Amino acid sequence: MAEQTAKDMNVELTGALRRGSVKKNVAAIHVSGKLTLLQRKLSNVLLLNAYDTLIHQTTHRIDARTLCAMIGYNSNDMETLKASLRGLVETLAEWDMLDADGQQEWGVSSLLAYAKLKGGVCEYSYSAALAEKLHDPKVFALINLNIQRRFTSGHALALYENCYRFVRTGSTGWWELELFRRLMGVSDSTYYEVFKHLNAKIIKPAVAEVNKTSNIIVTPETRKMGRAVSHIRFKIKENPQLAILDIDDGEGARNSPVYDRLRGQGVSDRLARQWINEHGDAYVAEKISYVQGQKGVQNPISYLSAALKADYGAGEPAEPKPSSARARKLMAVRDAVAARTPTQRDADKRLFVSRIEDAAARQDFEAHGWMSALNAETIFEFWEDMMPGVFDEGVTP
């Protein structure tokens, strides 16, 4: 769907920031409102979770505990999650850009159209107009969650988000200070109307954290009207020391024969690129061949996901035979993990690791994942708590 949309708009999908041509008013979404660091992280996780079905699906779901774990909330702190979701619904996203026909288009929408929590699941939706913009890589850039986790300041993450989409052009272009204060969430403070205060408390600390934490380096430049600073822009270049944290822009992965094999099996574009970037062509190709050689596989994509994660076929009994109750439970865990989205799997793993106190047990889990023998009983308790009844006979995760 994403590729067809891009084709219709004559856009080459080679990355979240690459554009067919650089125009004077580059398309961008400005998010206003005083979002906290956790709210910004929440917004990015929700978008990543919904991205593959953003255009053709009106509602999206993610279990609330996974969502909390992904953004650093206490997994039982539903009140904080409710407050953050409320904040996203009350926050405006605004765009002012040229459309596909070269006509000026201005629009505004709530960042989330609605959100609700029911039965341990967070359900949410975007307005149709905003979903279209968020899915267009010319307009909005997905944020790498590996980089997002490193931020400790909401202002720094806000600066990063608003600069990252311009990395291909090398500059944000000039922003009026009023707009910049709005992007940083301090537009209602008279204190920050004084540039000296804005620079000392917001700009310098945010720039320092972006340059230390992320995959880009930003340098602020100002322009004056008379004696007063009236505009600011940020020159942007890639940070070679932290480039490993970045997501491949898709150009390399999409040219890989392994990518074509994955897509031919129904794997989504984003997931195919993620697997290739994370594991490498050779490893993914090996696991595709392994799965194709297995008989009776009902869900090849889920099975392949598990094979990549647990290294099936590597010469050791990664996939247990159903000869015992314990082995059957391990197979149930394997299937439960395979049924989760990449975002959920990452959260599940980090949540489980946070509960391991013994160093040897932690090391064994890092080496063997959910097939860890030292952690087997704890793993069973974890998944029974996550999915009650998961080990019952005849239950499909």
TrEMBL record:
Xref: InterPro entries: Initiator_Rep_WH1, WH-like_DNA-bd_sf, WH_DNA-bd_sf
A biological process from GO: DNA replication initiation
Superkingdom field: Bacteria
Residues in Initiator Rep protein WH1 domain copies: 22-163
Molecular function GO labels: DNA-directed DNA polymerase activity
Pfam families assigned: Rep3_C (PF21205), Rep3_N (PF01051)
Family indicated by similarity: Belongs to the initiator RepB protein family.
Protein name per its UniProtKB record: Initiator Replication protein
